[in-house]
Amino acid sequence: MGNQIGKRGKSVLFELRNALRAGDIWLADSRRYREISTALVPIETVFETARLAVPLEAEDWLRHRTHTLKRNMAQISGADQAGTLAGGAIVDGKLQIDRRERAAPEEAAALVLKL
């Protein structure tokens, strides 16, 4: 009976496990349950070495995307005004795209069902 853990002891162990998993507490020499900040890369290193396709700052990315969107919308508007917008038109300020013809013949659907 001396080796058995009571309900309170089990509760403590479960809460300890949960805290370790959540990162609320950590063990100094543990790989799995170490302090999370030791696994993070310093921001200076990220700025020096990152070669991402997108900027690290959200404002820069949003500014670039807004510029691209405005440029593309102006291009579509110009094509519509010139009557060269293929496969669609702008009606009452909304882009309407014409339905495309089927690329596959009607018999293809029946063939797929047979397979």
Number of strands: 2
The quaternary state of the protein chains shown equals single chain
How many separate domains? Answer: 2
Query: Main beta sheet: strand number and arrangement?
Result: 2 strands, antiparallel
Major β-sheet strand ordering: 1-2
Number of helices: 4
Helix fraction, binned, reads: 40-55%
Question: How far apart, in Å, are the first and last alpha carbons?
Answer: 67 Å
Please state roughly what percent of the residues sit in beta strands, choosing from under 5%, 5-15%, 15-25%, 25-35%, 35-45% or over 45%.
Answer: 5-15%
Output mean pLDDT: 85
Q: Radius of gyration, rounded?
A: 30 Å
**Low-confidence region ranges:** none
- Outline, from the CA principal axes? elongated
- Structural class category: mainly alpha
The secondary-structure element order is HHHEEH
Summarize the structure.
With 115 residues, this protein is mainly alpha-helical. The protein is built from 4 helices and 2 strands.
Description:
This protein is mainly alpha-helical and 115 residues long. It is built from 4 helices and 2 strands, in the order αααββα. The chain has helices spanning 7-22, 43-49, 58-82, 107-114; strands at 88-91, 94-97. A two-stranded antiparallel ribbon has the order 1-2. The model has no long low-confidence stretch (mean pLDDT 85). This is Transposase.
Please give a handful of descriptors for the protein shown.
elongated; 2 domains; two-stranded antiparallel ribbon; 115 residues
Helices, strands, pairings?
Layout: H1 7-22, H2 43-49, H3 58-82, E1 88-91, E2 94-97, H4 107-114
Antiparallel strand pairs: 1-2
